[in-house]
Amino acid sequence: MPREITAFSNPLIKRVRNLRDKKHRREEGLFLAEGLRILTEAREAGRVPEYLFYSKESAGHELVRALVVATERAGGEAIETNADILSKLSGKDNPGAVVGVYPEFTRRLDSLDRMASPIWLVAERLRDPGNLGTILRTGDAVGAGGLILLDDCVDPFSVEAVRASMGALFTVPVARASWDEFVLWLRAGAGELVGLSLDTEHDYKAPAYQAPTFLLTGNEAQGMPDFMATECDLLVKIPMLGKADSLNAAVATAVMAYEVLSQHRS
């Protein structure tokens, strides 16, 4: 049976609240996700929380009941609380009906099947959690094999990144690696590395992309370093017809991903 916690001083509340900080996430190996849609996406993807917090007002909701059952069957704990506690945990004034605590999960490169999808997304030194979450949503939408984060990217398990992913964190495999590790893995099998760059004359619609296509998006402010651009099999750019000199990194990734998807579908 679910227990009830309504005191801010409860040790578990303090512990879970601390997961909003990267240092504590790393120490615990746990992260927060909030919102009925995101937690339901996670459940449907086979992931249930170790701790599930929900408000008394939402206890009768069909999806909340399903989450409670799934959590308890998996050995986790369901906890009934109030909106003030949920707000403290999520950091939002208008929190969702549920907050879940999940174990972190990332994949090793050698566990990925590069032939599982014709499209893969790769990001290097991505800094904005909103961009990371949006790129994950794009990956889910185009059926990408996964997202590979290179070097010092923003934490995919931050509250902001999880929220921006709208559940795609649970449906798109995420791997983390250094650039050198990635290149060794990539060149050991099939795969075309395509970089998004302003320093090229190749329009993004011109090439015939080879599957599997690995789309490399560089740092938001600096783009990709020269040594990465040199390693790419192909550099392409998206035409800019107005005064802006570039697109947002997540938007550019989405435009490219749908072009590759369109070609592979044809």
Structural features, described:
The protein is of the alpha/beta class and 266 residues long. The chain folds into two domains: 3-103, 2-Layer Sandwich (60s Ribosomal Protein L30, Chain: A); 109-265, Alpha/beta knot (3-Layer(aba) Sandwich). Helices cover 36% and strands 19% of the residues. The chain has ten helices and eleven strands. The strands form two sheets. Strands 8-7-6-10-9-11 form a six-stranded parallel β-sheet, sandwiched between helices. The chain has a five-stranded mixed β-sheet with strand order 1-4-3-5-2. Helix 3 (36-44) crosses helix 4 (62-73), helix 6 runs parallel beside helix 7 (159-165) and helix 6 (129-142) runs parallel beside helix 10 (249-265). The radius of gyration is 20 Å and the shape is elongated.
Report how far apart the termini are. Answer: 53 Å
Shape: elongated
Q: Under the CATH scheme, which architecture of the largest domain would be assigned?
A: 3-Layer(aba) Sandwich
Major beta sheet, specifics?
Answer: 6 strands, parallel
Name the poorly predicted regions.
none
Helix-strand makeup class: alpha/beta
* Rg of Cα set: 20 Å
CATH top level class name of the largest domain: Alpha Beta
Total count of helical runs of at least 4 residues = 10
Mean pLDDT: 93
Q: Helix proportion of residues, in percent?
A: 25-40%
Roughly what fraction of the amino acids lie in strands?
15-25%
Q: How would you name the CATH homologous superfamily of the largest domain?
A: SPOUT methyltransferase, trefoil knot domain
What is the count of distinct domains?
2
Order of helices and strands: EHHEHEHEHEEHEHEHEEHEH
Beta strands, count: 11
